[in-house]
Each structure stands twice: as structure tokens, then as C-alpha cells.
Amino acid sequence: MDLKGKKIILHDMCLRDGMHAKREQISVDQMVKVATALDAAGVPYLQVTHGAGLGGNSLQHGFAPHSNEEYISAVAAKMTQAKVSVLLIPGLGTMRELQSAFDCGARSVHVATHCTEADTAPQHIAYARKLGMDTTGFLMMAHLNDPEGIARQGKLMESYGAHTVYVTDSAGYMLPDDVKARVGALRAVLKPETEIGFHGHHNLGMGIANSIAAIEAGATRIDGSAAGLGAGAGNTPLEVFAAVCERMGIETGVDLFKLMDVAEEIIVPMMEHVVRVDRESLTLGFAGVYSTFLLHSKRAADRFGVSARDILVELGRKKMIGGQEDMIMDTAMTMARERGLLKAVAA
Amino acid sequence: MSTRKIRCALIGSGNIGTDLIYKIQRSPVLEPVWMVGIDPASEGLARAREMGLKTTAEGVDGLLPHVLEDNIQIAFDATSAYVHAENSLKLNALGVMMIDLTPAAIGPLCVPPVNLREHAEKVEMNVNMISCAGQATIPIVNAVSRIQSVGYAEIVASLASKSVGPGTRANLDEFTYTTSGAIEKVGGARKGKALAIINPAEPPMIMRNTISCLTDDEPDHVKITESILQMIKEVQKYVPGYRLVNGPIYDGNKVQVFMEVAGLGDYLPRYAGNLDIMTAAATRTAEMFAEEILKGSIKLEPVV
After folding, report:
1. Residues in contact with B255: Cβ distance below 8 Å, sequence separation at least 6, in sequence order
2. Which terminus of chain B faces fewer neighbouring Cβ atoms within 10 Å, N or C?
3. Rounded to two decimals, what is the model's pTM?
4. Sequence-ordered strand ranges (E) for chain A
5. What SS3 state is found at A134?
6. For testing contact with chain A, the best of B199, B226, B261 (most A CBs within 10 A)
7. Within a 13 Å sphere around the CA of A346, how many CA atoms are in the beta-carbon half?
8. ipTM
């Protein structure tokens, strides 16, 4: 399909999804350095929060060294053109926290629900609109709902006031046809002015191909991450995607070489482990498991002597979804007990 | 024990109200007499009539003229936070004690094994049942904080999608605030945080709860584990499906407990332990008040 001249809005995730890959340990100084460089490269939207978004600081999701407010204020003050966005998952983040993020300079929000539970988001989407924010309804783990179901859920998000509805491949499980079917189903039911976005994970190496498939089916917003810094095998690597767009004549408005420099000179040296498709992140994509579970499973594996792959496959079988990180430890303990590696407490 | 029972009214003819009928009918000290709805065609009201209750579709105002002649002494409100205050005012004025299953929380928060006796002794005329996650997790937080001081407690409740009604969905922040506050006020943690996850898996998952506490000092593993196991037994007296799956597990100052709550399957399905623990805790609360009234140790008075 000829996509020449198509305009696409890029949204960088390395200071939010990338927090997961850094066990939430990115300093304010690092955030400002990365954000300033991305702003200079012309990236129009940058997401900045704890990996789990507003309200994310917790035993469940880890504690970052700074509050979301500190990160957002520090970054927003330095932006010349980029807008700062945040993630809000109802049940974890609240409207009070959204107001506080807005007061610190956030002007865009992904309001995220599991792909079948859009009706937990009406108050948060309405509140974001009241604040005048660029508002997205973000349907996570979208492989777990069929295209018709995604269309119905997207329609709900639109009815609450979302400007944009995202198909979110949190498990990095989807193949290009899966993406096209879901984006296409949304395009068929949403109002023409409602935009569609795609957020990929690279667990099966499909981040770029899936994003292009999304654009072919009508998406106009694409999430990615410089050098792919994100959960699992990372997000769609933004500089690679920008290069592919340039070759195809898709207009992103970013300076490709500057973006390549950010990835190579700033992001890669920040990585604690090389974010890539390895045995465990491949398991996420293959079994359809939430990408953030990766490092948690490795830790549970070390502690209880059960392999991370076995834990991930079991979590996939039990249909655990984003936010249920506590069930990783629980599942590892149950498996360890069944294998005689852990003694039960009598109750 | 006397064969006399305390007569009850149920406000709200939805799933919770219907499940309450079953639990109250089994009680040796309670008798369900009235069910109050707002829709004459509601299934809940029809079922209540089949089960022998008197019904009205005119809201609480339809019940008021019958309160004294039918000697109604306890009412359960399973409507919404918005109408609870008015319901409570009208019924309290006639000397009816209110058990609030909405997030309104006008009265003190009640978790039966933690503070019910205290509320009964003070003859509180309105007690609030917090939230399903609160009922399922606060006993454990309290089991830790009664041994050692807890600086921070965090709970994660995973609920089956089919068990979460439209009211909770549309007001998820309210659930978060109410539960977080109750972890502090009733659980005894200096700071509380509540997380809720709604999982659509089929077949529906049974309610799960993970409770994590950070103690100020090195936790005493033996004493805390014993306290938690004791508390679980207390909750099991009214929710038999309250079960320890894993833990307590210790990591530095962190204590973690992994629970499952299966319902009794009265009217609500077994996986909906989150709804069952609310109706069971509410019934348990009413029973404690009823026992004291029957013994003559407390007396309900009109609130004017």
C-alpha cells in the first residue's frame, strides 16, 4: 500500500515504559537529558511517569527514586515543542493524581484499561477532557479481545470523550494481520475525527511491521521508544521506525539522525541489560503475557528455583493481566511447593 | 437462646440484596421481613416475594409506614452512596440501625473481627462495610499491626470482571480512596494504598488478594505468622471460603500474604467472593447487634 505523504504523530515511551526496563530507577537528571534531546529531535509527545503510570509507586510495581510530580515538572519546564504525557490506569491512578500531573505541566494522557474493561475509565477520561488534555483511551492486551470486541470498547472510550483510541499490544503477541483487523474494526465504527493509535512491544520482533500495518488500516499515532527502551523486549524502536517511515514517504516530522544519536549515545548507555528478544521476552510474546512481567518473573525464578519461562507460561495459561504482578510471586511459590522446593504454612 | 429474632429490612433489590436474603434466613437471630426496591418490575422484588418477604417498589418511603407495626430494627442498605444518607436519616429517626454496604461511609467503618464488638457496645446506629477489598484484606493488615507497628500497608485485589457491577466501575476512584483510608483507620497502618484489578478470564477467576505490610522494625516471623493464622480463622467463621494460598513470606521488613476468597454460592456465584464477603460481613455485623439486643445489653433508640 502506498503510504506516501501520510502524516503520523510519534509518541516516545522510553521515560515511562522504559522505566520498567530500568526497575523504575531513572533519575530526574537522566529524564531531563533524554527528554531535551528528544525534544530537539522533534518528537512531538514524550510520556514521563513511573512505568505503571500515575499512582504507580508501590510495592506491587516498585518505587521510583522520585515522585511523578518531580519528573513531570522537571521535564515539562525544559520542552520547546514536545508535549509531556502521562499514563493513568484506573484502579491504580486516580483523578487527584491526574490533576496534580496537569498542574506540573502534563498536557496529554493515556487512560489505560484492559481491552475488555473500558467502562472503568469514564470518570478519568471526562476529567482529562475537562482539564483540556489531549486524551487517549488505551486498550491494553488487545490480543485478548476480538476485533468486534475492540471496536465496541473503543466506541465506549470515544463516548466518554477520548480523542484517540489505541490498540495496545502489551504482550507483543500480535502479528500484522491481528493489528490490521483491530485497527480496521475501530476505523469502521469511530467518528472520522477520532484518531487511532498503536502501541507495540517487540517480543516477536514485530514492532515495526505491526506499526506499519496499523497505519495501513487507518492509525495516525504510533508509540515507540528510542532504542526500544521498554518492558519485555522493549517497545517499537522509535529511530528504526522513523527510518522506515522516511523510506516509505510517511511524514513524522522528526529529525532521523538526531533521533539515532539519542538512541545510541544516551539511551543505550543507560540500559542495565540489553533490551532485546531473549528467551524470556520471546516467551512473553509467544505465550501472550504482559511485558512488564519479565523482570518480576526473573526475580521470582531466582528466589524460588522455578524457571522464569515456566512461570510466564503458567501466568499465560491462568490469563493473568497487567497489574497482577503479585500473582507472579504467588504462582512461583505455588509451583515451588508442588515441586517440593517450598514448605507450606499450615492454615 | 431465645427463639425471638430481630426483624430486618433490605434496601436495594439487586444481586447484593438478594444474596443477603439467603444469609439472613439462615441466621438464628435475624429474620428478613421487607425488601425495598424502586422498580415494580424488578426480578429481585419478585424473588423476594417468592421467598416470603413483603416488598415495596416505592423506595424507603414505601417502607417507613410499616417499620413500627412490623418491628423492623435493622436495615441493610445496598443501594448507592448518593441515596444512603437520606435512607439512613429516615430510618434512624424510627430507631432502625443501618448497615451501610454503599461507599457512603457516614458511620464508622466496620470489619467484624477487628472492631465490630466496639461498635455494638457503643450502639452505633450506622456502620459502614467499606468495600469488598477492605473486608478481604484489612483483617490481615490488622493481624500484623496488632503485633508490630506498620508504616505502610498495600493491598492488591483481583476481581472477576463478571462480579464487578456498573456502580463500582463508574466510580473506581471512590473504591480506591475508601479502601486506602480504611487500611489506615481500621487496619492500623500509618499509610495505606489499595490497588484493584478487574480480570475478564473465563471461567471467571476466584477473588484474589495480596496483602503487603512494611513493619517499622524487623518483623517477628513466629508471632506475626501466628497472628495472621488466627485472624484467618476468625474470618472463616463467617466466610468459610477465605483461604491462605501462599505466605506469610518475609523479605526484610516486608510481610506478604496471598489470599483467595471463594463465596458460598448462595445467590451469587462462588467466584464472586468479593460480593460474598460483603454480604457475609454485613450479616455477621447485624447478628452481633441482634445478639446484644436479644440479651438486653443494648437498646436501639430513635435518632432525632
Report:
1. B144, B212, B213, B214, B215, B219, B224, B247, B248, B249
2. C
3. 0.94
4. 9-12, 45-47, 83-88, 108-114, 134-140, 164-168, 195-199, 221-224
5. strand
6. B199
7. 0
8. 0.93
